Amino acid sequence: MNLPAPHTDPEVLTVEQVAGILRCSVDQARRIPRTELPGYDGPGRYVLYFREDVLRYLRSRPLKNEQAARIAAIRVRRRSRNAPVADNVHTFDPDRIIARLPGRGD
């Protein structure tokens, strides 16, 4: 005998539904900090979310182009490996250091 499904409120979501809206795995949805996406203890072991909170979280995320621009702005630009030794700040030459010391260089 089939029982009718209980009434579900479309404004209250489970973590599986949140993952579907965000198009991520359930594990990733669970790892979102509660400060960014508040969850509420439901009956049993369920954590429930309000649809408006999920949409607010989604709207607060940076656009992909903005995120790429932020990463590019803070990325440390490395000098070319083909740069001359005198210009390469990553090269350590002890003879050059000794030559710069007073009384040691020629």
State the shape: elongated
How many helices? The count is 5
Mean pLDDT reading: 77
Query: Rg to the nearest angstrom?
Result: 28 Å
Strand order of the largest sheet: 1-3-2
Strand content range: 5-15%
The helix/strand series, from N terminus to C terminus, equals EHHEEHHH
Number of strands: 3
DSSP helix fraction: 25-40%
Decide which structural class fits the backbone: mainly alpha
N-to-C terminal Cα separation, in Å? 100 Å
Give the low-confidence spans.
Answer: 1-5, 76-80
Largest pleated sheet: 3 strands, antiparallel
Can you offer a commentary on this structure?
With 106 residues, the chain is mostly helical. It has 5 helices and 3 strands, in the order βααββααα. A hairpin with a 5-residue loop joins β2 and β3.
What's the short story on this structure?
39% of the residues lie in helices and 8% in strands.
Features:
3 strands; 3-stranded antiparallel sheet; disordered N terminus; 106 residues; single chain; mainly alpha
Topology:
Layout: E1 12-13, H1 15-22, H2 26-30, E2 40-41, E3 47-50, H3 51-60, H4 64-74, H5 94-100
Antiparallel strand pairs: 1-3, 2-3
